[in-house]
Amino acid sequence: xxxxxxxxxxxxxxxxxxxxxxxxxxxxxxxxxxxxxxxxxxxxxxxxxxxxxxxxxxxxxxxxxxxxxxxxxxxxxxxxxxxxxxxxxxxxxxxxxxxxxxxxxxxxxxxxxxxxxxxxxxxxxxxxxxxxxxxxxxxxxxxxxxxxxxxxxxxxxxxxxxxxxxxxxxxxxxxxxxxxxxxxxxxxxxxxxxxxxxxxxxxxxxxxxxxxxxxxxxxxxxxxxxxxxxxxxxxxxxxxxxxxxxxxxxxxxxxxxxxxxxxxxxxxxxxxxxxxxxxxxxxxxxxxxxxxxxxxxxxxxxxxxxx
Length: 307
Known about the structure:
Blueprint: H1 2-22, E1 34-38, H2 43-59, E2 62-66, H3 72-81, E3 86-90, H4 91-98, H5 108-118, E4 124-126, E5 136-141, H6 142-148, H7 153-159, E6 164-167, H8 178-184, E7 195-198, H9 206-209, E8 215-219, H10 223-227, E9 230-232, E10 245-250, H11 251-256, H12 259-267, H13 273-284, H14 291-301
Parallel strand pairs: 1-2, 6-7, 6-8
Antiparallel strand pairs: 3-10, 4-10, 5-8, 5-9
Helix pairs in contact: 2-12, 2-14, 4-5
C-alpha cells in the first residue's frame, strides 16, 4: 500500500508539472523566444497589434508590448532598429511610404507580391493580409442611398448634382481624391456635387449625423459605418488603392518559431470590413470598451486562443 501510494504521488506530481509547463496554451510548452509587438497609435492598429500579442502568448512565446507608438514613420523605424519585432502594417502604406512607389496598386494579390519582394532589403516578411481594406471610400445614410438608388461610385456620380459632399483635408486637391474621380466620371456627372465642404478628419461623420451632408469620405473599416448603420458604397471602378493589413515581422523572429506563421495567418480571413468596423465601434463608440478586452473576446469567440 505504501509503495502504491508513493508511486501515485509521483504520477500526480509529474502531471501537475507538465500542466504548469504548458501554461494553458493551445500548442503547449513555453518558448525561450521573446517577441516585442508594436502598433501605430490608432484604435484599429492597436486592436490588431494586441491580437498578435495574445496569439503569440498562446503559443507560449514571451511577449513585450510597445503598442500605440505613433504614426507610420516611428513605428517602422523601431522595426528596422530591432526595437520592435512585429506590428500590423498596410500593403498600400508599404508600397507608397516605405518603398516610395509612385504607382498605387489596386489589386490585393499584386500589392502583396510587391511588398514581399521590396521588404527583403530589410529582412522583413509580410504574412497573409486580412481581407479588410482600410482605404478611402464614401459612406451615406441608408435612407438617403435608398432614396437615390445609390450603391456604387457610378451611382454616386450620376446623382452627385443632387447631393452635398463633406470631405477631410486635401481630398479636393489630391489626384487620388476628388480631382481624379472627376476625370474618371467625366461622362457621368463628373462627381460634381450640389455643394461640398471640408471637415476635420476626426469629425468627418458629424455632417452626416447632423444632416448637413448626404455623403462623406470614409475609411472602409471605420467603426461609425457599423455603429451608425451607414452604407459604404462599392468601388465598382477600382479607383482607390488597396490597404490590406498584415503582420510585418522581422525574418529572424519568424524563422525562430515556425508556429508564428500558421497561427497569425489563421487570423487574417477573420478580419473582414464588418468585423473590424464592429470592434472599432465598441472602442470608439458609446460603449467605450477597452481595446484589450475587445481583442481578447474576438480571438476567444473565433477559437484562436484558449480561454
